[in-house]
């Protein structure tokens, strides 16, 4: 589980989100509104959204082309289909991601505050390490940090 994330609001400018993410070495942005998780965005997706010359998106529908760089906000590039869950085992987290078709899970504390982000890749790597003789893969994610 990665604890390298920044808390962002939907109205945060993408430029600011990139600066904060880089300054904290974060790989993820967790979008929070009124104290609850409402979305997420990977830092490379923030950067791609910021890049006006994004090769994959035709200019007529890309958010940067429509809005201009200074007007692009986190809500324009983040996903609201974010899987959120309490600290649980690697296996349960991976099964939940698989069931939801998600590539990551935002792990939250009992009070709903974000604690970290686990990606499908993180969970598979942890299970692989466990199979090679490192700690039990059913242990709680929060204990890893």
Describe this structure as you would to a colleague:
The strands form two sheets. A three-stranded mixed beta sheet has the order 1-2-3. A three-stranded mixed beta sheet has the order 4-5-6. By secondary structure, it is an alpha/beta fold. The chain has helices at 14-24, 43-50, 63-67, 74-77, 90-100, 120-131; strands at 5-8, 28-33, 36-42, 83-86, 104-108, 114-119. Helix 1 (14-24) packs antiparallel against helix 2 (43-50) and helix 5 (90-100) packs antiparallel against helix 6. It has one domain (5-144): CBS-domain, CATH 3.10.580.10. The N and C termini lie close together (7 Å). The relative contact order is 0.18. Residues 52-57 have low confidence and may be disordered. It is globular, with a radius of gyration of 16 Å.
Please give a quick description of this structure.
The chain has 145 residues and is of the alpha/beta class. Helices cover 35% and strands 22% of the residues.
Which strand order do you get reading across the main beta sheet? 1-2-3
Count of the domains:
1
Q: Give, in order, the helices and strands.
A: EHEEHHHEHEEH
The overall pLDDT average reads 77
How many helices does DSSP assign?
A: 6
């Amino acid at each position: 589980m990665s604890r390298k994330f920044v808390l962002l609001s939907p109205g945060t400018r993408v430029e600011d989100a990139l600066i904060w993410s880089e300054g904290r070495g974060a790989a993820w942005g967790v979008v929070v509104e009124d104290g609850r998780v409402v979305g997420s965005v990977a830092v490379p997706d923030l950067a791609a959204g910021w890049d006006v010359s994004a090769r994959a998106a035709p200019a007529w529908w890309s958010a940067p082309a429509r809005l201009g760089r200074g007007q692009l906000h986190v809500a324009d590039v983040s996903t609201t289909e974010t899987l959120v869950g309490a600290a649980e085992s690697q296996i349960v987290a991976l099964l939940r991601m698989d069931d939801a078709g998600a590539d990551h899970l935002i792990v939250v504390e009992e009070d709903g505050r974000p604690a970290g982000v686990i990606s499908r890749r993180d969970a598979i790597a942890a299970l692989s390490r466990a199979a090679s003789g490192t700690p039990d893969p059913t242990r709680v994610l929060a204990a890893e940090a």
